[in-house]
Design brief:
233 residues; mainly alpha; Methane Monooxygenase Hydroxylase, Chain G, domain 1; 8 helices; PhoU-like_sf (chains A, B); Phosphate-specific transport system accessory protein PhoU (chains A, B)
Chain lengths: 233, 233
């Protein structure tokens, strides 16, 4: 091994460490955005909703930084195989976290439409959404832990949780539609709640996408290939 | 200029030509998916809806090809400045088109829920959605033309059209909510139509995002910077 090569390896390790730190930081901001958006919604707190929207720019800025760094790493260090997969995964994961941040921002944007300007009656089904948000947010947290730990088995577990979230969403959809039928005056507000529930369901889908990327980065196999070989075995 | 350098330049041109062709092919498939999904919806054609869902895999496959090619180009050709911006733009645009395909697939998935299994009454507001779909699909078409032509001015024009689409969406939202209030038996079906309208609005947002990427790739400036300097001037 030449000194030049060693130098490149160390530089690569430093870069990948930096990438992991940026992803972890983005993930923390996205989790915070989900929980603040839900607090703003359940407490009818427009100031907090505004804060969520403002802070989304910080997530976007880190994504741009990840993009610059990954391009530089690929161009300068020319990583191969496992290392290249990990760098590309970081780039793609950053794009997904940015979208998760957008969903949280979108929930925050709906606070005013859901509560209305006048003091309209409280929408009861609102109370079942925070538990769904917690499920989605936990998936985001755990999948980023799996990325940091390069743990494909944890990634598989997270994918399994997505169907529980989908079931939760389907129940909420029915509850909200029934509520609309029984309380036609609230239809406009509850329609916004349907979108909130859908946003939470999409956050879970994105966490699942990240889990698939983590799995591929760590193993070089897609999760579907793994399932196929399981069935074959 | 050395022969080796010339060789790299020619190889780069060939790669970027290949990338553009892949993006254009993906875009064509995404446009087709939007129009087929809307046909399936307005004609209540479950077979066509199923076809849209199946064809989405082709879009995903091209995205994976774009990703592989961009990573190879960055690693092997080490493009700089304008060229690097264009390669990164191709990677990001492919990811956005993949999402546009997902929105079309999502519309196709709702065909059964909107029409119901029994022959329920036709939902009148369905008739106003195809025009909105056309607006969104045209934005996708035109922004990919702008990418092929490296035309930042065309990209700016596309961004302006997004607010017309947003207005359309807001009108449809109100029409659908009014329809729900007046026809409570259709609430569940119309709730799915709300999501269809929202998907079309999101497709427009994504076309706008692509327009911003095209602008940045062609000029090295973000569109916001341009606006700021316009205001300053």
């Amino acid at each position: 091994m030449t000194t030049g090569h060693e130098h490149t390896v160390k530089a690569f390790d430093r870069d990948i460490g930096h990438l992991r730190a940026l992803i972890s930081q983005m993930g923390g901001l996205a989790e915070q955005a989900i929980s603040d958006a839900m607090l703003a919604l359940t407490r009818n707190d427009p100031a907090l909703a505004k804060e969520v929207r403002a802070k989304d720019k910080a997530i976007d800025a880190i994504e741009a930084e990840v993009e610059k760094l990954t391009v530089r790493v690929i161009a300068l260090r020319a990583p191969m195989a496992d290392d290249l997969r990990e760098v590309v995964a970081a780039l793609k994961i950053a794009a997904v976290i940015e979208r998760i941040g957008d969903y949280a921002k979108n929930i925050a944007k709906r606070v005013a439409s859901i509560h209305g300007e006048t003091h309209e009656p409280r929408i009861e089904p609102l109370s079942i959404l925070p538990a769904m948000a917690q499920l989605a947010s936990d998936m985001v947290h755990d999948v980023l832990d799996a990325f940091s730990a390069r743990d494909p088995q944890a990634a598989v577990e997270i994918c399994k949780r997505d169907s529980a979230l989908d079931d939760y969403y389907n129940s909420i959809f029915r509850v909200l539609v029934t509520y609309m039928v029984e309380n036609p005056k609230t239809i406009s507000q509850v329609a916004h709640l349907l979108f909130v529930a859908k946003n939470l369901e999409r956050i879970g889908d994105h966490a699942t996408n990240v889990a698939e990327m983590v799995y591929f980065a760590a193993t070089g196999q897609t999760m579907a290939e793994r399932e196929t070989s399981d069935f074959a075995g």
